[in-house]
Structure prediction request, 342 residues.
Amino acid sequence: MKIPELQKRLRAEKIDAAVFMGNDPHFRYLAEVNENPEYGWLIVHARRGPVIYIPGFEAPRFRKMTSIAVKEPKEGMFRGVKTLGIVNEYFTIANSKWKPVKGIKRKDISKIMLELRRVKTAKELRIIQEACKLTDEIFEKTFRRFKTFKREQDAKIFMENLARETGGTSFPTIVGSGKNGALPHYQGNEKLRKGFCVIDYGVFYKGYCSDVTRTIYLGKPSKKEKEMYDAVRRAQQIGIDAVRAGVEAASVDAAVRYDLGKLNKYFIHGLGHQVGVDVHEGSDISLSRNSKGTLEKNMVVTVEPGLYFRGKYGIRIEDDVVVQDGPAKVLSKATKNLVIVR
Ligand SMILES: [Mn+2]
Prediction:
């Protein structure tokens, strides 16, 4: 429960209350519910209990999900509030014209929220670990089934269907075969090409995301291709080994690039990012060369080096790991031995 910590921060900043709109992931995060309401908001008061305001027809459902008081919207919700914390990104222009907040001074609390979300509670870690376990199982099922797929999206649809029962996927699945794998965010649907096939996939589970990539091979890899795969796998392990509480986030990216040596020029994106209620969380600290800040215990980050040879193929391996005082705990465990589909 992060609300008491938020209240402490609000008091320190002399903010009387914070409001989170229904579409804001912080709503789920703070209320500890799996979904956002279509319409409604959460008010966290600095000095009294939080309240969710939601229309009557939605209220019973949310009452079952949270211990926070759920009430119907009414006048005077912000009585006594002189300074109101908002999250700029979700407090849109329409909201700023919203009558109940008229005349109340507003202060952006995005930074406070980023800081709160950065370090995960034991409960959050448990949920993300479960999300990763589901992801592993879906990867294994997909590998076994791969021979039957004709097009890239046959694999994508198969995987996304398996995620339906748990809450869906955390982002659009990427399946890029052959030269398409050289485009990190490829979303096409070509006939599956021989060679490497990059599969980037994650589930949305109890309000949290997983984000895992495996690269498999369709056909028979050459010696050179196997070497490239091994280079990515080794670099990824070096990245995981470098993740530790207290280290500069940027230094983890640097360690991987150093290991890749001449191949580094084919590694065209950052090494990783935080993950949580959002799949790309907390842009303030990431495993990339321009990131400032250090890793803290119980942050969850991805480690995802890749090599991209334009017009030829791509390889990426991505795991979700928990930052610890000692070696990072790897949550995603789908095999990293090169899966070969013939
Ligand atoms: Mn990722």
Remarks:
- The pocket of manganese (II) ion is lined by residues 211, 302, 304, 318 (CB under 6 Å).
- The chain has two domains: 3-117, 122-341.
- The longest helix spans residues 122-145.
